Amino acid sequence: MRKIMIEDSKLGYRKHVLDEFKFENGQTLRDVEVEYTTRGTPKYDEKDNIVNAIIYCHRFNGNCLSIEDLYQLMGPKSMLADFNFFYISITSLGFPQSCSPSTTNLKYDFPEYTIKDCVNFKRKFLAEVFDIKHILGILGVGRGGYEAFTWGCEYPDEMEFLIIGHSSFKTNGYRYLTSKALCNLIESSDAYLDTVYSDNLSKIMFSINTLIYTQYFSKRAFQNFSREELDVLMDTFVEEGSADDIYDFKYRNDAALNYDVEDKLTNIKAKTLIVTPSEDIYYSPEFDAYPLKDKIENLEINVFDTQEFVYNYDYSMFVNLLRDFLEEFKK
Fold first, then answer.
1. SS3 for the chain, per residue?
2. pTM here?
3. How many domains is the chain partitioned into structurally?
4. Is residue 308 part of a domain?
């Protein structure tokens, strides 16, 4: 088996190459790159199996290094350092630096993939690199929560717990319309099928990021910013996304557009913690958390004050919540 592992000591990530990856639709790619990083120290049982692995699944606009956003909660210097888990963060399928339309240069010829493909991509990596087939838990945020829900539904015996923040179990309603509008915006441009990446595509990505920013905070949070503050915040967000590749975005958006595991939620066996904002344009307790009460047996829901978090971005507010939840899983 051909394996390549490269560690970048400056950026903190590693690269691994899978011999091949087979998609749900039957298509196969060879020499598939996977970007990842780890935090903490693995612990082993008598059969040399890692027993304290937690998989971090990142946001729609993130990558494996997004785990640093949670530095207060993870790693040897975190507020939960005494829990000593081994965190593995993997840049998901379809994202730059892992296998994606842009990094393979396949553009619109890249295989259509699903959220389940993203899960299987990580499962294959974990089995091949760490010989892990059973993980302690999964922590998914935003789109990463889609992977966590899917993993728990499709492979319920592979984890002990799920922690899912600011996410949902399906794309419907406002989310569906937004994703559909973004898809239509991209496909309406003849430049999408050009052989050369043009300025027209960059301009579309500018418009897309501007639209996405309108969903970034709750309505009340937006009302509390002045116009000048909104301009600065939007400009910063759009600038940070200016390098996004439109083909990567399109495939990522299509996978989210078709996401729905509502009928499989009763399959979940893992103890599940849902952390959701009290008010949000994109996700809400009413539609994305409370309906889970009748679907997942071992479930805990925590609704946090959106306003308090927006102005501080201080994840320490979740320390006691996670400490109580994770206590039984300490190794």
1. CCCCEEEECCCCEEEEEEEEEECCCCCEEEEEEEEEEEECCCCECCCCCECCEEEEECCCCCCHHHHHHHCCCCCCCCCCHHHCCEEEEECCCCCCCCCCHHHHCCHHHCCCCCHHHHHHHHHHHHHHHCCCCCEEEEEEECHHHHHHHHHHHHCCCCEEEEEEECCCCECCHHHHHHHHHHHHHHHCCHHHHCCCCCHHHHHHHHHHHHHHHCCCCCHHHHHHCCHHHHHHHHHHHHHHCCCCCHHHHHHHHHHHHCCECHHHHHHCCCEEEEEEECCCCCCCHHHHCHHHHHCCCCEEEEEECHHHHHHHCCHHHHHHHHHHHHHHHCC
2. 0.93
3. 1
4. yes
**For 17-26, 214-223, 244-253, which range has the lowest pLDDT when averaged over its residues?**
214-223
Whether 64 maps to a domain, the answer reads yes
Can you give the CATH number for the domain in which 66 is found? 3.40.50.1820
State the residue range of the domain holding 302.
5-173+255-329
Q: Is 231 a catalytic residue?
A: no
Which pLDDT belongs to residue 126?
98
Q: Which of 244, 245, 248, 280 is catalytic?
A: 280
pLDDT of residue 9: 41
* pLDDT tier, 146 (very low <50, low <70, confident <90, very high otherwise): very high
Q: Average pLDDT, stretch 77-93?
A: 93
Task: Please indicate, yes or no, if residue 194 is contained in any of the structural domains.
Answer: no
Assess whether pLDDT exceeds 90 at residue 138: yes
